[in-house]
Amino acid sequence: MLEIHFTARRFRVHPDIREHAVKAVEKLDKFFDGIRRCDIILSFERSTNSLKVAEICLHVNRTILTAVEKSGDFHKSIDFAIDKVERQLKTYKSKLHTKNKKKLLRAKAKVL
After folding, report:
1. Domain ranges of the chain
2. Is the pTM of this model over 0.85?
3. CA distance 18 to 77
């Protein structure tokens, strides 16, 4: 089960942005089912001509995957951060598979 923590630093988030972020993170569950918790942190970088920053931290088994994106719009920042975390999840998953294959090959070699 995915636990989502949402934080907005120094401002109140519009419900539309919050809903967009939560839906995007819930879609990550189809890539890897070992996601335990997700932290979504939204903030501004500058007061004038502000950059909107979206930070997404995924707690997967004993690993934390983090993506930070900046743009002029929160929706874009969230989407780009989700894309980054998605790529990180795919590489993490492939590393797990190769480690498991190596363990199986070693076990077969010992038996033979």
Report:
1. 3-111
2. yes
3. 13
